[in-house]
Every structure is written in structure tokens, then in C-alpha cells.
Amino acid sequence: MDASPEIHTAFDAADLAWDVSAALIRIAQEAIQARGVCHLALSGGSTPIPAYALLALPEWRARLDWSKVQVYWGDERCVPPDHPQSNYLNAKTSLLDPVKIPPTNVHRIKGELPPAEAAQDYEREIAGITFDLILLGMGDDGHTASLFPGTPILLEQSRRVAEVYVPHLDSWRVSLTLSTLNSARTVMFMVSGATKADRIQEILKNEGGANARPAGLVRPTRLIWMLDREAAGRL
Ligand code: 6PG
Known about the structure:
With 235 residues, the chain is α/β, with parallel strands linked by helices. The protein has 7 helices and 9 strands, in the order βαβααββααβββαβαβ. The strands form 2 sheets. Strands 1-9-8-5-2-3 form a 6-stranded parallel sheet, with helices on one face. The two termini are 21 Å apart. A hairpin with a 4-residue loop joins β6 and β7 (171-176). The structure holds 6-phosphogluconic acid. 6-phosphogluconic acid is lined by residues 43-47, 74-75, 87, 137-139, 143-145.
């Protein structure tokens, strides 16, 4: 990472959704202006859903030419695309359907395939792509995408996508690897709530050191932490 992280604290979760949506549109517009396209990877989990819903509103969706946005995911649960746990399904219903993005612009991780096959398929899907923006969340344990503490995917050096079994969830996932996250032009974390405050302090005060949490290992060219007051409560 060249520059130090940009840290933005919003008043509450609603303001955070607004600020993340505005930043996403700005970064996407800059990419489209520069290269005619924005390669955007969406986050899973619940935190970004209010931002997706905002971006889907008529007055917001008019601010971005979604036909010039290629949409991907940072990770996916190994479930079918119509499963309630699917990150694809959640983004499709809250954002992609309302903004009427061309189906050919949507590049989902095929969670219905066996994990290794899904990872190989997605590696082909993103071949040659540099992500303009990867939106990430963070769990209480400092995981991000499906890079969980102590999992072998954290050590992956050659693959851009990998399958990972998460023991405490007893489930398989497919995720961009750390090197892919770090090769993005911009990574923007969106983190909300008091349960994440300790981890945010540990990561942003770099108290993790050699044992840094996965989210603390994400060091792209441009790194933005979008927090609400509760998540930033220990800074
Ligand atoms: C996922 C996400 C994961 C998520 C964090 C935070 O597939 O679940 O990629 O990394 O961002 O677990 O989840 P919440 O936003 O629900 O707290």
C-alpha cells in the first residue's frame, strides 16, 4: 500500500450507508471516466445491504451509468444462487435488479458448484481484471471476505481465487485471495456496530503486528475505512 488508510467516521449506520454509497458512485464514475468501465466487487454480509438499497433508489441510480459497471463479489457461500445465504441473491434483490444492470455485467461466483470447481470457474471469470473498487465487510474476529483467521487461504500466493472450508461455520466458501484484494486500485471497508470496535482499534492501531487479523492484511494502493461511530468507538 502506498498511502496510509483513509478513515471516515459516520454518525450512525444510516449515515454510513449514505457515505459509502456516495463514495462508491464517485470511485465508479472516476473509473468509467478514466477507462470506460468500472470493475466493482461487492461485499457479502448484512452491513452493506442499506447501502445497496440506497443506491437502488431512483434518485441515486440515476447518478451512475450501471451499464458501464461490471459487478463481481469478494466471496460467496457455497450455496445455490437462490439460497437465502447467497451473497449474490442479496445483492441481486437489493441492488442489481432495481438498477437494471445488464445480466452480462454480473459475474457471480457459482456457489452451486463443488467448491474447487467454483473457484476455478471464478478465476477464469476474473482473468485479466484489475478491480477498481472492492467493497469489504469485517467480522468480529477480523475476517474479511472469506479470509478467516487461521485458514490456509491466507497463505495462498499464486491463485487469485480459492475455496476455503471454515471449521467454525462447518461450511465451504469461495473467496478472492489476499493478493487479489491487495491488487485492487481501491478497497473500501464498511464496518458498523460496537461489536467490531475492539477489532477496528487492533487493526487501525496495528496492534496485531505479525499476527494481524485478515482485515489488517488488506493493503491495496488506496484503502478506505468507512465506519460508524460505534465501530470507531475505540479509536
Ligand atoms: C460474507 C462476507 C463477510 C462479511 C463479514 C461481516 O460473505 O459474510 O463476505 O466477510 O462481510 O462477515 O458481516 P456483517 O456485515 O453481516 O457483519
